[in-house]
Amino acid sequence: MLTTPCPKLNLLGLHRLGLEAFFKALGEKPYRATQVLKWIHFQGVQHIEAMSNLSKALREKIAAIADIRVPEVAYETTSADGTHKWVLRLADGNCIETVFIPEQTRGTLCVSSQVGCTLNCDFCSTGKQGFNRNLTAAEIIGQVWVAVRSLSEKQGEHDHAVTNVVLMGMGEPLLNFDAVVTAMNMMLDDFAYGLSKRRITLSTAGVVPAIYQLRERTDVALAVSLHAPTDALRNVLVPLNKKYPLKDLMAACKAYFKNDKRRYVTMEYVMLADVNDSPQQAAELIQLLKGVRAKVNLIPFNPFPHTLYQRSSQPVIDRFRSILLNAGINAITRKTRGDGIDAACGQLVGQVKDRTRRSARYLNKSNRGGEKSLEIPIK
Ligand code: SAH
């Protein structure tokens, strides 16, 4: 009889409680969990034999049923501004993208949560790639694992290590809730990456029930892809709005930091020329945000092949921002980073084995030639 070998358990995807349960099942003491967590995430070991404070017998016991599998770097590139992008190949052949953005005082890693995205926001190239599947917790934390190792090897080229993580890469993190929360737990754990809750930001297009659930599980920073001040416009730009309209979304945002009066939800607002950037729309945004502890992040639109949208001009962005500032709303313009290597917001595409056939429909619809190849060069 033919049997398919059962893949071993990937220890990379287990947070501390998961590892404790694993060792309990093996009849071992729970403190083994912190030892293993440290070996994998702190020391970066990939082999159980290397865990020298575990007895040989225990290492063999673990290795019989588990291993450590990290995503493979298919391709990596650095833009002129120092932004670094990794294309990571997953075991099933799909590819995802992870981006590191070095700044004066911090280094931000932008992590993907899904292969593609189901939401199909009109101005986002990830959405146009269609969707394949959710990432596992191992594949999400694996991006941090790879980046931390890779950056330390490049010491000198980069001034900063990873100090912040943003879940702003490919996918909608709140539609992959459990894996994302497990991975964030490891980012927060002192025996893994030890980042503070303020240095991890989850960005959502507005999956309202999951915002309430998130609040029960953790209190990382929250960013919301708002992009429009009215339901009529947001229904077009972010179709998820038809399911969770602005009234409900704003209520969820108010509730998120209800118990911490010093924290603000970040509202992301992509600046699209003649679509959402008028003074009247700024005034509508001010009305919408009344009573919500929010700051606004204006994101100049990053173009991608076949898109019909254009970036608002700098004077228009400045005008929009000053209207918000005059109303007492903290608004900043996000600096575009990494656009030279297609690593900027909304430009991450990876290589998605699209199951929705959306990518083909999109290319047919906008069949104007000159389409960018999605083939990933292999070094
Ligand atoms: N699905 C989540 C995570 C993606 S975050 C979310 O929607 O929040 C990526 C951020 O970049 C979001 O705010 C998204 O709206 C924004 N974005 C998408 N496409 C963009 C583009 N072409 N130019 C600038 N920002 C874009």
What is this structure, in a nutshell?
This protein is an alpha/beta fold and 379 residues long. The chain folds into 2 domains: 9-67, DNA polymerase, domain 1, CATH 1.10.150.530; 72-367, Aldolase class I (TIM Barrel, Alpha-Beta Barrel), CATH 3.20.20.70.
Comma- or semicolon-separated keywords:
ten-stranded mixed beta sheet; 2 domains; 14 strands; two-stranded parallel sheet; alpha/beta; 379 residues; TIM Barrel; globular; single chain
Overview of the structural elements:
This protein has two domains: 9-67, Orthogonal Bundle (DNA polymerase, domain 1), CATH 1.10.150.530; 72-367, TIM Barrel (Alpha-Beta Barrel), CATH 3.20.20. Helix content is 32%, strand content 18%. Helix 5 (137-153) packs parallel to helix 6 (177-188). The strands form three sheets. The protein has a ten-stranded mixed β-sheet with strand order 3-4-5-6-9-10-11-12-13-14, covered by helices on one side. The protein starts with 8 loop residues before the first strand and ends in a 14-residue tail after the last helix. By secondary structure, the chain is α/β, with parallel strands linked by helices. The protein has helices spanning 16-25, 32-42, 56-65, 125-128, 137-153, 177-188, 208-217, 231-237, 246-256, 279-288, 314-326, 358-365; strands spanning 9-10, 66-67, 72-78, 84-89, 95-102, 107-110, 114-116, 131-134, 164-167, 200-204, 221-225, 265-271, 294-300, 331-333. It contains twelve helices and 14 strands. It binds S-adenosyl-L-homocysteine. S-adenosyl-L-homocysteine binds at residues 121, 123-124, 168, 172, 203-205, 225, 268, 270, 299, 301-302, 345-346.
